[in-house]
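Predict the structure of DUF4158 domain-containing protein.
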Amino acid sequence: MQSDPHLLALTMLLQAYQRLGYFPKLGDVPAMVVDTGRGVLDLPDGLAAQFCEQAGIPAEAPALVGFYRRRLAGTAAAVAVAVDAGYPAKTDLVLEDGKPTLERRRGADRRPSALALECADVH
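Done. Here is the predicted structure for DUF4158 domain-containing protein.
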């Protein structure tokens, strides 16, 4: 029979797969989720710390939050750079008073009824 930490790790991975549709790295499973799983499986205390040690993540909440903030900071910056690089090609997106706004698209050939409706005061 497998050890308690292995049972806990397997359970966490299967639960994550059931909810996410893929198997995450053990380090991507938050410590509080692991601790809840430990309680549900009625496993002894301290397994969450062992799990976190094996996964290479902090077991304490403040340290775990800092870990994920540092890890995601590079990802967010890379996404921002990619969006900014593609911005000039996005002619429908404009900044008005610092707020992003999508301009309305209008077809080249609009029917007279559509033009009349556009000019009508319907409010």
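DSSP finds five helices and two strands in the chain.
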